[in-house]
Structure formats: structure tokens, C-alpha cells
Amino acid sequence: MRAARRSRSPAPVTTTLPDVTTSSAAQTEDLGRIWGKRLRSGDVVRLKGELGAGKTTFVRGVAQGTGSSAPVASPTFQLVRIYPGRVQLAHVDLYRVENSAELADLGLEDLATRGAVVVEWGERLDVDGAALIEFEHLGGDRRRIRTIRDLSH
Ligand SMILES: Nc1ncnc2c1ncn2[C@@H]1O[C@H](COP(=O)(O)OP(=O)(O)O)[C@@H](O)[C@H]1O
Ligand SMILES: [Mg+2]
Asked: Ligand 1 centroid to 28 CA: how many Å?
């Protein structure tokens, strides 16, 4: 009983350790919120991980951390969504981007001059100084979230 109750409302994640395992979507959002609070204009954060690994869930927290109250949805069919906040957050999803011409059309550099940028399937990007976070599905509600490369500040 107690274990079941704990798993329904796990304690908030408060750490930014480079290797975290979350056991609920809410915990992954918590971690995203911590990252969002750190973000400054010009930051690019690349997210790597299979479908369902928790990237969009994480971005939901990131948006809150940047002070946005906009609803975060998967931009799979839109490529870019903009969330205004303390810093503007551009939420990019490269899942359906097939070639370098489409990548260039996204105007990532321009987005980064206007605010922070978080990119799902972002390992495809080679941006100087960009952070990289890897999401791994461990089964059930468990996800391993590793900071491969942190922000430079
Ligand atoms: N620990 C967890 N972290 C993130 N998402 C989780 C977790 N446990 C369960 N989920 C669920 O897994 C799904 C993750 O989907 P999503 O964030 O869209 O992944 P992605 O963007 O990587 O495809 C959501 O339905 C979410 O509620
Ligand atoms: Mg997604």
C-alpha cells in the first residue's frame, strides 16, 4: 500500500546531477523545470532518446522554468513552437526533418538570438557549445536522464 501510494506521487526531483533516474512523468517535468530556470538567451539544449523516452515531458518542465504558462505539446507536426516567458523558449522537434535544407530552413541561429532553444532529436545538430541530454526508457515509468554535455554557464 505504502509503496503504491509513493509511486503515484513521488517526491519532487531537486537535483541536477548528471545521471538521474525518474519514476514518473512529474519527476521528469521537475528536472526540466530546474533546467528551464538556468536557461539564458542563446542557450541550445539538444535532447536525445527514442519515442516515448520523455523528451516532450521534460520540455513541459523546461517551459515552466523559463516562466512560460503556455501549454507544451509535441511539435512533431509543427517543427517549432514558441513559448514566451522570462526568456523566450523555442521548442524544436527534428523527428520529421529529413535533410540539411529543411534543417537550415528552421532558422535555429535566429531562434537562439531571440531566446533559448530546446531541440528534440537534437543529437542530429552540431552546434558549438550546445548542451546534450540523453533519455533512456527503463521500462514502466522509469527513465534514465543523463547530461552528456552541460550548459557552459
Ligand atoms: N519517468 C517518466 N518520465 C517521462 N515520461 C514518463 C515517465 N513515466 C511515464 N511517462 C510517460 O511516457 C510518455 C513520454 O512521452 P513524451 O514525453 O512525449 O516522449 P518523447 O517526446 O521522448 O517521445 C508520456 O506519456 C509520459 O506520461
Ligand atoms: Mg516528443
From this structure: 8
